[in-house]
Amino acid sequence: MTSISVTIPATDRRAFVPVLTIAASTFAVVTTEMLPVGLMAAIASELGTSVGTAGLMISLPAILAAFFAPVVIILAGNIDRRRILAGLLGLLVLANLASALAPSIGLLLAARVTVGLCIGGIWAIAGSLAPRLVPEQSIGPATALIFGGVAAASVLGVPVGTMMGDFLGWRTAFGAMAGFSAAALALNLWALRPHAFPGARR
Fold first, then answer.
1. 157-199 pLDDT, tens digit each
2. DSSP 8-state secondary structure symbol assigned to residue 3
């Protein structure tokens, strides 16, 4: 097995604190996106629907994310990227809470539409932030770490969420993701400083 290592110059390590908080954001949104995979049967059973219909929890956000990503970039213009990212993480918190409390498959799918917006928006914004946060020679490693949240979600977030759903119920799994997303939001508000975003309002 080939291992991949990312070397970060010692002088740049402090600049990587906000990079890691953005990685937490990509972890949160991808885990939220894929969480229903391991919970599908339990959700379908409790909400009285077929597994095929419940599968829309995966396909619907994915399709909408592909549409929303360029729309977010177009609409963003010169708006402070920190504010956009914070807004999307706030929506992700609400979407996870709505999923945890949904009394019907219709309302659960409505919450997943919001997840689609968050996926497209966070992917579009997160990928452009590394050059604003680290020196030029560290842009590559920073970008790798930001999108490393995706791999971490696949190998850690989704299995842990599925295990939690098996032992505590699928609603608890979505509630836990709401809590993690809120933590990622708080970290980003703390770590992303205005000086890295010229023209941003403090």
1. 888 888 998 889 999 999 999 999 999 999 988 887 664 454 4
2. -
pTM over 0.90: no
Within 13 Å of residue 3, how many CA atoms lie on the same side as its CB? 3
Number of CB atoms found within 10 A of residue 113's CB: 13
CA distance 72 to 74: 5
Classify residue 15 by burial, with Cβ atoms within 10 Å: 0-12, 13-18, 19+: middle
User: Tokens 């995979």 label which residue?
Assistant: 37
- Cα distances from 120 to residues 32, 106, 185, in angstroms, run 13, 22, 17
CA distance 182 to 85: 12
Provide CB contacts within 8 A for 111, sequence distance 6+. 95, 96, 98, 99, 102
Which residues in the chain come in under a pLDDT of 50?
Answer: 1-6, 8-11, 195-196, 198-202
Read off the tokens for 74: 């177009």
CA distance 71 to 55: 25
d(CA 35, CA 154): 10
Exposure class string for 60-84: b at 16+ Cβ within 10 A, else e: bbeebbeebbeebbeebeeebbbeb
Q: What CA dihedral angle connects 134, 135, 140 and 142, to 10 degrees? A: -20
